[in-house]
Amino acid sequence: MTRFIDWSTSVTDQLAEIVEDQLDDSDLEAAESSESTRIDVDEVHRALLGSWPAERQRARDIAADPAFWRDDSLSLAEHRDRVLAQVKLLAERGTPSLAFPKRFGGGENPGGNIAAFEEIFLADPSLQIKSGVQFGLFGAAIMHLGTEEHHERWLPGAMDVSVPGAFAMTEIGHGSDVSSIGTTATYDPETEEFVINTPFRAAWKEYLGNAGRDATAAVLFAQLITKGMNHGVHAFYIEIRDAEGNFLPGVGGEDDGVKGGLNGVDNGRLHFSDVRIPRTNLLNRYGDVAADGAYSSPIESPGRRFFVMLGTLVQGRVSLDGSAVVAQQAALAIAVTYGNQRRQFDNSGKGEETVLLDYGRHQQRLIPRLATVYAAAFSHDEFLREFDAVFSGAGDTPDRRADLETLAAALKPTTTWQGMDTLQVAREACGGAGFMADNRLTLLRHDLDVYTTFEGDNTVLLQLVGKRLLEDYAAKFKGADAREAARLFVTQAATKAFHEIGLARLGSIARDLGSSARSVGWLREPENQHALLAARVQDEIAEIGMALNRAAKAGRGEAAFNALQSRLIDASHAYGELIQWEAFTRKLEDFSPESETHRILTWLRDLFGLTLIERDLSWYLISGRLTTKRARLVTSYISRLISRLRPHAQSLVDAFGYTDAHLRAKIATGIEQERQTEAAAYYEELRASGNAPLDERVVYRQKRKAAKQAG
Amino acid sequence: MTRFIDWSTSVTDQLAEIVEDQLDDSDLEAAESSESTRIDVDEVHRALLGSWPAERQRARDIAADPAFWRDDSLSLAEHRDRVLAQVKLLAERGTPSLAFPKRFGGGENPGGNIAAFEEIFLADPSLQIKSGVQFGLFGAAIMHLGTEEHHERWLPGAMDVSVPGAFAMTEIGHGSDVSSIGTTATYDPETEEFVINTPFRAAWKEYLGNAGRDATAAVLFAQLITKGMNHGVHAFYIEIRDAEGNFLPGVGGEDDGVKGGLNGVDNGRLHFSDVRIPRTNLLNRYGDVAADGAYSSPIESPGRRFFVMLGTLVQGRVSLDGSAVVAQQAALAIAVTYGNQRRQFDNSGKGEETVLLDYGRHQQRLIPRLATVYAAAFSHDEFLREFDAVFSGAGDTPDRRADLETLAAALKPTTTWQGMDTLQVAREACGGAGFMADNRLTLLRHDLDVYTTFEGDNTVLLQLVGKRLLEDYAAKFKGADAREAARLFVTQAATKAFHEIGLARLGSIARDLGSSARSVGWLREPENQHALLAARVQDEIAEIGMALNRAAKAGRGEAAFNALQSRLIDASHAYGELIQWEAFTRKLEDFSPESETHRILTWLRDLFGLTLIERDLSWYLISGRLTTKRARLVTSYISRLISRLRPHAQSLVDAFGYTDAHLRAKIATGIEQERQTEAAAYYEELRASGNAPLDERVVYRQKRKAAKQAG
Fold this sequence. Notes:
The structure is a homodimer.
Chain A: H1 9-23, H2 26-35, H3 41-49, H4 53-63, H5 76-93, H6 110-119, H7 125-145, H8 148-159, E1 165-168, E2 184-188, E3 193-197, E4 205-208, E5 217-226, E6 229-239, E7 251-255, E8 268-272, E9 275-278, E10 288-289, E11 295-296, H9 302-311, H10 315-339, H11 360-391, H12 398-429, H13 431-435, H14 441-448, H15 458-477, H16 482-497, H17 499-505, H18 507-510, H19 521-524, H20 526-553, H21 557-588, H22 596-615, H23 617-622, H24 628-645, H25 649-654, H26 660-663, H27 671-689, E12 694-695, H28 696-710
Parallel strand pairs in A: 1-5, 2-5
Antiparallel strand pairs in A: 2-3, 3-9, 4-8, 5-6, 7-8, 10-11
């Protein structure tokens, strides 16, 4: 674009100064200065590999082995066959056994097991999920909910896949609300058996991996009824098919058929009519029935018992968090590599087209998402260490279990949504090529889609987080003098109500209205980023808490909760992101503060934090947490950070450590660069030959110019 | 939640008042009052059907005919076979011929043709796109770029599908930048032939529908070279396969194989080595070559000529806009119907679970998107009328053509992104059921994905819009006294720079700081919504224009454009949404202002406008266009509108007029309601029988209570 408005400078100088700010004069310098800096790719790679590098690397070797790859050309039945065979092969290679007891040949290494499991995503997400059902749900339920005898009888078959198993929890009528499932297991003391029944259509078990075709057994969740009392949901081991694959008497089911993704997994429905199983098939760690029908449990409260039982299965959520990190890394490795090679439009008119990643919009699409996946990866590793501490027994306390569950409920939704977003943005950034199965992005996204729903619907999980945050908030005030509590609250949340008060309290914000507002130093301080991100959670929770309290007094608690549900979920989501930001910040300490790696990763962390703040900028403005001048700086500093990071985009994706065998995206193999080189050589040769045709456009322009000069 | 903070009311009264505002006391009243009102479903349905109701309804009948449905169980090859047969059947039914000349049995009804075409989406998007390639690209290129003789020779074969054809424009190396394609058509006066060549790998034609397998001919785009001059991209008719499906000599190609969606379409690549075609195969409406090789064209400027040629193909973008409306309507019809039947969690403790659409978050996910699709549908109909006016010849002026192209470039990206978003949100709102192919949402989304890329990448199109807006802006100041221009600009854009000035100018905004700020009346005024939405576009364009002007003076125009690219694209996107808002507002005039339909649709329009404003709320705050108090009102009034509209959600989707045969989503057929009724009846009967087991949770709570009272 050229000077189409030619007005006097004097009048507009003042305005222009502001606009220049947006234009970001320092971009070029920043880009230049950062050309000379480099991240230490190996060091960053090691940091990303996390706390179980050997297990993760071993699983990456498996994911890079063609025997485990998805073959896009297969029919539904062939894809299922292949995946079943792969699950068995995986068991032979030993990775899944990491989770199981040593006496069965396992590794008793819960963290390493999950780290390895996550990497299977890039072989084929169907393989990941089918093996997750077999080992992580069916096998893990036997291990965590069963006792010694159960382990002896059923773990070997689960571990070597001689017994493919389903995890029969969800029903058509009840997914998120597991405690309301309809399947019953009624104890018959006469025969010392449980009688399993599906009383109505909505109580059919549904969406069960392995159940559509392969499973010969299942861990079944049902309402345990004995002596006229319903003791709530318990797990039972039940055989469902014979060796020929026919349903056993009383068992029925249907195949779920084609799904939006994960079509290598045979999901299906099951129902039961008076199926009798021995009393000892109750997985009785948390609740048992004696021969005479007397119920006993180490946990008296039926509510707590239910949550403890489900809590043993938290590893599913842990592993989805990590899988969504893998998905994002792969997507960005593909899109950034291609964006660094693909050229389109000759903007300079010098015969060289512009590399996609040199376009402002392209950078803005991909580089903030690079920052996100670094935050997600580092927070996942902390999460995984916490999971390992609890599940290895080293740090297994009720409080840590509760915290782990909150962490899982906050992070799994956050990263799976990040994964869906990044895969789609990467797909669009690769244009038509992005749509081809050969370039992986679309099919990975199809498969990842349901990760936002299974192992706990994202929205429902975030609401659990919200309730926990509200409880913590309430606990803070418990027992405090009412007037004192109110005072505390006023200083904490009043910023939104009366932002003059807020501004007075938050001195440093209020004082920035002068020229110093143009400095980005304040935004770069991690304390300030943290204060802003934390305020977004705390103030919202405080305000929601107060509103609920008031509404409850007025007898409108339920309506109020519903009216505030959406805000509560958003605040919980912001909490998940805050955890990611904190983990990224802690991780920076592992790098030498003088190193270029530290400098560049700090930019990346800043970009992550500021991108979150920018998304909720109106909240910060309305609450008085940011002035309008500082809010504008957030946006312009984000632009500057993106420019600074642009030269490092390739190194930052190289540090993920994925090879062509993992990515398997043709456009990310250098093929685009080769084609461009070939085309350039052709035109070069043509020019040199003297046989190149004239370009009518050039001739036309010259003619017009000549006519103009003549006229 | 119950009163967990019990502080003295006196201290917190003031705060509570603000919070109550958020809680929105008026919700219940609003919901009650609107229970008694109803939209006239038939009247709204007619409004949505738009200007070609008969053609649209006829195509809906086709989409409801099982012969045209997708069969999810088919393999890739079978799916392609089925779709090819369906395209032929479609030609027999006559719908596609609407676009073609009457002397070939066509309807010369461009608007009706597109309306009908859009509805084919719900039969199978693959069928839509394969027929779009055959009739809307291959056939339309012959019609628009060829002349009489070409029509005689080739239109009948295109129309009856005896010649399946490809549209060979895009190359591996050049998609968005068509003018840089590498394929050459060099005229040989000796033989009076064009010699077609693919000089390098990047010049292979790519992603061409029909080219993977079925096409026997193609309209080929190549650089026309004659007498040593390259006259730019022109279209040629070329045969590529013989009757047995083998490539003709010199022609080669590859099948694109599996894609992220649209797998019933056989996309593929083509390349040419010294393939000779007669001189008369040049589609010569806008450029011709005489037997001696002399080039002639009715359009002197090669640049304009290129754009005129491409402009004849704008109907593709028009039809994608409308198809994305159909996609959204289907998604919302499915998700709202299911959300009105599906229940989960007994929140009241009274034994009845809550309907999903009664949850605040669920409403917030679906109801604003209902507002969006109404805006999209009404703006699409205006767009289609404008297209018809230009292409029927009734209003074919260069200015209207140019405006039509800008409209297409603004609306196609806006609606296709809305479609992607709505399909995903609907899918997640339906949980695991949403992931099943049986419920349509995922597979429709897979197919819609590439609608954001083909017929012009959304990002590239929005940049075209941005350039046009900048040109208009520049034109406004052209010839104006520089000082005057600057003054104009200051009053227009200064709001952001110095918002005190802005506030002074925008008196009504500045004056609202008192108690009247609590009134939503101001936000309800369409003039104010329009002023806000327009300001978002105008101010941004003005500021970007000024920055570019200044940067150009400093010799940094290109860098500046790149730095501002992302903002320009966002402003263009906001322009597309503004057009939708305006069309919705105009459409309201068709309804009697006293009618309940008018009242409810006005809420819906308000919700659309305010949702857009809320998304960019930080921009409005920073620019001084909204005060923080009014900004908060935007959010709370949105909540109120959602509550008011909730009782009408089902009527609003019923008005789309799609039947089970169109939606083909099991969960939207009433099956969920049946299952719930069955389950409820089972429990009712169990209770009545006296055989219901006791619930341990109830017993436990009673025990605890008793113990507490005793202690």
